[in-house]
Amino acid sequence: MKITLFGTGFVGSALARELVEVGHTVTAVARHPDSLLAPSVSIVAGSVHDPAVVADTTAGAEVIVSALSPLDDNGGLPASTSVLAVTADKIGARLGVVGSSAILPVTPDGPRHADTAGFPDWLADRVTAHQRTLDQLGNTPDTLDWFYLAAPGEFGPHARGVRTGRYRTSVTAQVSDATGRSRIGVEDYCIAFAGELQVPTVHRGWLTVGY
Predict the structure, then answer these.
(1) Domains in the chain and their CATH numbers?
(2) HEC secondary structure over the chain
(3) Tens digits of residue pLDDT in 71-95
(4) Whole-number Å distance between alpha carbons of 106 and 108
(5) Distance CA 2, CA 60 (A)
(6) How many Cα atoms occupy the beta-carbon half-sphere of 173 within 13 Å?
(7) Strands 205-210 and 168-170, how do they pair?
């Protein structure tokens, strides 16, 4: 597939590498692209808020992926996802968004992770950005095929993990292991993301992943 990926940070750079390794053609777009991306990734320096950049880099794309930050000076993930949703719908591409399980229930029909005791207050702005993004996606035209793959609670540069090739997914609640931890390494997250692109299981909805 021809994939245009916006964002080459912690997840975006790993996702670009995984996607080309499994045979996809990837164009990565970022204001300051990761210089260590695989040589087979086509790198474009530019902004998701530049209409010319978006039009040029998504021409012919079958999938558009957002691995952009939830917070920035241009409205964060809600604003960038709005741009990409319109673009994806216009060209008939599927849209995949790197998300956060903080806005998902910890158990089926339970509270959101962000609403549980002990959840860090300093993450409130990020939680709001992700919730607004998911709400916006739910209000897009039915013609847009999108999915939001939420990373688990323990995820990030501080918990990079090791590649195992194992993961479980859920569409009802966070995925937790036998010890109650919701976690996954970034490479396994990217394997799951690539798997959802290759064999879609969710259309116009969210799923999450973990060990």
Answers:
(1) 2-210 (3.40.50.720)
(2) CEEEEECCCHHHHHHHHHHHHCCCEEEEEECCCCCCCCCCCEEEECCCCCHHHHHHHHCCCCEEEECCCCCCCCCHHHHHHHHHHHHHHHHCCEEEEEEEHHHCECCCCCCEHHHCCCCCHHHHHHHHHHHHHHHHHHCCCCCCCEEEEEECCECCHHHCCCCCCCCEEECCCCCCCCCCCCECCHHHHHHHHHHHHHCCCCCCEEEEEEC
(3) 999 999 999 999 999 999 999 999 9
(4) 7
(5) 7
(6) 14
(7) antiparallel
85: closest CA among 73, 68, 105, 101?
68
> What mean pLDDT is reported for the chain?
96
Residues with Cβ within 8 Å of residue 180, at least 6 apart in sequence? none
Q: What is the pTM of this model?
A: 0.96
End-to-end CA distance of the chain: 27
Q: Which amino acid is at 31?
A: R
Structure tokens at 112: 């959101």
Q: Identify whether the C-beta of residue 128 lies closer than 8 Å to the C-beta of residue 100.
A: no
CA 185 to chain centre: 14
